């Protein structure tokens, strides 16, 4: 998801500096109606991934005494991120001109007040680009809450998510998309494999380790309370992902169309692979398994979606099902880490895998759009791997320090009695279901 529509080759994406003046019109003087219409549509699709998609998906996965708490967290994060993005988050990602530009943007020209009705970003209104980027900033911390679901105080969650957005998400997004050091190295992340999925996965894993497991885990079964709701949310996520990946072209063109096509293939292959593995290992294929495999396929194809062809998507989707399935078994069954909604093995492992495989399947011989000038497969894979490690390390450190700060001020966990009662009543005084 770059500041301008992807060019025909990665060479143009990686070898030429991008115009990044937040509020300064670039390109033609008139917005393209078709591209603008598509970007506005994609923005609505991506927002629908959080509200109501992620709300339904996560709400179905938790126990019935915590349904409203997970929904409340997603709603509150959506509101909080919108305000932070307005007052400076956008500028810190896409602003330029500061002494620390390789690491972070600037507040100058980054607020909504600097964006007029006629300001352009390429050939689309900058207001549309700002809003599209906002939907990505919203869903990322909303994904993280799955790692500590059913046990963190609401006030602590809100403080943690605000600080996490500022300390983790904004710098990493700048490194990759805003002209930072990773973009200058030539990293390829079309729609958020690093920025969204690696950061969310690492953030969820560190959160689960710091907060420790829910009472009774892993000996007490904690199955999803409403799989129908989860299936509904999964369907919304799948459809919304077409805006997530296809909209990142910032144009209604062949790049957007191919991104949507490979997104469909990645999701389907990830779902089928997970289903077969589960069927073979446990004797029965589950609905939970196939929808989890779908999300794994979607997260893994995300960084590659604008750069690879159908063959690459097929391979990436199968790899997603394999790697994320066994990562889930490792984290939950062997290491007994209570990442409640499997954020780290699905989004984290999937995002990292897809980012590295992008460096392979971007090759023209695999149907991709080719390498940047002076890049070959080995060097591109090295850059991709460096980006995953750097973003993951920054996220792990930042998440840990933020959690410790919140713990020292507000405390992190609800009491044992409140956890037993459920967060719906204990934190919000409401029930999702009346007896």
Task: Provide a descriptive summary of the structure in words.
This protein is mostly helical and 435 residues long. The protein has a single domain, classed as Ammonium transporter AmtB like domains (Ammonium transporter fold, Orthogonal Bundle). The chain is 65% helix and 1% strand. It is built from 15 helices and two strands. It has a two-stranded antiparallel sheet with strand order 1-2. Strand 1 and strand 2 form a beta hairpin. Helix 3 packs across helix 4, helix 4 runs parallel beside helix 7 and helix 10 crosses helix 12. The protein is globular, with a radius of gyration of 21 Å. It starts with 9 loop residues before the first helix and ends in a 7-residue tail after the last helix. The N terminus is likely disordered.
Order of the strands making up the biggest sheet = 1-2
Spell out the helices and strands N to C: HHHEEHHHHHHHHHHHH
The CATH level-2 architecture is identified as Orthogonal Bundle
Shape: globular
Main beta-sheet annotation: 2 strands, antiparallel
Give the CATH level 1 class: Mainly Alpha
Number of strands: 2
- Given as residue ranges, the uncertain stretches (5+ residues, pLDDT < 50) are 3-28
Structural class: mainly alpha
- Assembly annotation: single chain
Please compute the radius of gyration using only Cα atoms.
21 Å
Helix content: 55-70%
- The CATH homologous superfamily is named Ammonium transporter AmtB like domains
Treating each run of at least 4 consecutive H or I residues as one helix, how many helices? 15
Q: Tell me the strand percentage band.
A: under 5%
How far apart are the termini? 47 Å
């Amino acid at each position: 998801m770059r500041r301008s529509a992807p060019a025909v080759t990665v060479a143009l994406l990686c070898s030429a500096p991008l115009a990044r003046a937040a509020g300064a019109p670039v390109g033609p003087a008139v917005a393209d109606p078709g591209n603008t219409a598509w970007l506005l549509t994609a923005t609505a699709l991506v927002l629908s991934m959080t509200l109501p998609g992620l709300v339904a998906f996560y709400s179905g996965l938790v126990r019935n005494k915590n349904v409203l708490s997970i929904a409340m967290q997603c709603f509150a994060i959506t509101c909080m991120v919108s305000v932070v993005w307005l007052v400076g988050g956008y500028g810190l990602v896409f602003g330029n001109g500061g002494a620390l530009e390789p690491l972070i943007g600037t507040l100058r020209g980054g607020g909504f007040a600097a964006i007029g009705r006629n300001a352009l970003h390429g050939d689309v209104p900058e207001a549309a680009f700002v809003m599209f980027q906002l939907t990505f900033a919203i869903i990322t911390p909303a994904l993280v809450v799955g790692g500590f679901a059913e046990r963190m105080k609401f006030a602590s969650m809100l403080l943690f998510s605000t600080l996490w957005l500022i300390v983790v998400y904004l710098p990493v997004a700048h490194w990759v998309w805003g002209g930072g050091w990773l973009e200058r190295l030539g990293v390829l992340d079309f729609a958020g494999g690093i920025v969204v999925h690696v950061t969310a996965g690492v953030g969820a894993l560190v959160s689960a380790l710091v907060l420790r497991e829910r009472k009774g885990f892993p000996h007490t079964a904690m199955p999803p309370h409403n799989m129908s709701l989860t299936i509904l949310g999964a369907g919304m996520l799948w459809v919304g992902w077409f805006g997530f990946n296809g909209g990142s072209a910032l144009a209604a063109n062949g790049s957007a169309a191919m991104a949507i096509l490979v997104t469909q293939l990645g999701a389907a292959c990830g779902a089928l692979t997970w289903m077969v593995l589960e069927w073979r290992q446990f004797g029965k294929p589950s609905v939970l398994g196939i929808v989890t495999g779908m999300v794994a396929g979607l997260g893994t194809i995300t960084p590659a979606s604008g750069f690879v062809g159908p063959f690459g998507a097929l391979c990436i989707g199968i790899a997603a099902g394999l790697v994320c399935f066994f990562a889930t078994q490792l984290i939950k069954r062997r290491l007994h880490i209570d990442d409640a909604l499997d954020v780290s093995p699905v989004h984290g492992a999937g995002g990292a895998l897809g980012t590295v495989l992008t460096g392979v399947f971007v090759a023209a011989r695999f149907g991709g759009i080719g390498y940047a000038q002076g890049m070959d497969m080995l060097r591109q894979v090295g850059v991709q791997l460096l980006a995953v490690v750097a973003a993951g390390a920054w996220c792990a450190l930042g998440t840990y320090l933020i959690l410790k700060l919140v713990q020292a001020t507000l405390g992190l966990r609800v009491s044992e009695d409140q956890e037993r009662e459920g967060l719906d009543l204990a934190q919000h005084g409401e029930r999702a279901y009346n007896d």
